[in-house]
Design a protein that fits this description.
The protein is of the alpha/beta class. It is built from 15 helices and nine strands. The termini are far apart. The relative contact order is 0.14.
């Protein structure tokens, strides 16, 4: 029996992938290791590197949390803003702007976003200098808490319904090849599940002007951080699993939009420090264990994918520090 863990306070153990928790089709089951994250340093003055990211960097699945592993790799402390604040991945400029001046001078900011959230975040949130995170609409909050999808999820995962839901899911898939609504497509041969939100974003098409606007906003953010606070930005967008493995889907007839490749090219032209996660992972991707870079039944990269990105950041950080040493001479 898989031991389910609270990812905020998890112990060593194993868990199901986030997509398997929806599908519950036993032929797609995959065990994912989960570890207890290390204590985060709360002394920003001791850190030269700041980090803001979403679940790719914050989830403790695999052998460790991304920021903890990067600390070990570069042998220095990292201040993980995401750990101490609410919504910094949505509003990085706001949180950096409100740090004490002595806490942000001559630092590096690692900023990460997932692909499906990148366009909205970059164009509608990243550059905001003021946000309202305490305004609460009680009625809407209650609707959110008790939305049908969340109630269904809680009901499906309750102890008294667990075995029934597993049986029902297997039966519906066996007879009708029907999967949960949050998993509109899958690869049967590779037992890989794909998330609805990623699929919807994958189908979108962006104009050259929209790509250019998005790249311009990252350049503007980079400039504002550097000239206002002395912070060097290292930016990355982690590709959605469907972007990297769309050719494994037997029923897939949608041509890739090239969004991420085009956006990275435009950002790079503007001189922003980036980790081109799309190119790095595409060049290394495999189709079978142990060469897969993403979990089959989870939205996140696996340990192999994480290590590839960790090495890229390690190299970039050392490169920037060497350049800064030369400039100071």
């Amino acid at each position: 029996m898989v031991k389910e863990l609270d990812e905020k306070n998890c112990s060593y153990g194993i868990r199901w992938g986030d997509l398997y928790k929806y599908s519950r089709v036993s032929s797609f089951s995959e065990i994912i290791h989960c570890v207890e994250p290390k204590n985060e340093t709360d002394k920003i003055s001791e850190c030269e590197i700041l980090l803001i990211g979403d679940s790719f960097f914050e989830s403790p699945i695999g052998k460790g949390k991304f920021s903890n592993d990067l600390e070990d790799m570069i042998s220095e402390k990292i201040f993980d803003i995401t750990y101490f604040e609410s919504y910094p991945a949505q509003n990085p400029y706001y949180f950096i702007k409100n740090l004490k001046s002595e806490d942000k001078k001559n630092k590096i900011l690692i900023l990460e976003t997932s692909e499906r959230l990148s366009y909205d975040r970059i164009n509608n949130h990243y550059l905001k200098s003021e946000i309202n995170i305490n305004i609460s609409n009680t009625k809407e909050d209650i609707k959110q808490i008790f939305s049908f999808s969340k109630v269904d999820y809680l009901f499906d995962n309750a102890n008294f319904t667990y075995n029934y839901v597993n049986f029902k899911s297997d039966l519906l898939f066996l007879i009708f090849e029907r999967m949960h609504n949050n998993i509109p497509i899958y690869s049967y041969s590779n037992k890989m599940l794909f998330y609805k939100d990623e699929y919807e974003f994958y189908k979108k098409r962006f104009t050259d002007d929209e790509i250019q606007k998005t790249a311009n906003n990252i350049k503007l953010l980079s400039d504002k951080l550097y000239y206002e606070s002395g912070i060097i930005l290292i930016f990355t967008i982690i590709p959605d699993k469907i972007t990297l493995y769309n050719d494994l889907i037997e029923s897939n007839i949608i041509t890739p939009s090239g969004y991420l490749e085009k956006l990275y090219n435009e950002i790079e032209k503007q001189g922003v420090e980036i980790i081109n996660s799309y190119k790095i992972l595409s060049d290394c991707r495999g189709f079978e264990d142990p060469n897969l870079l993403y979990y089959r039944t989870d939205t996140h990269f696996n340990e192999a994918g994480k290590i590839i990105i960790l090495n890229a950041f390690n190299e970039k950080i050392h490169q920037i520090k060497e350049i800064n040493k030369i400039k100071k001479k």
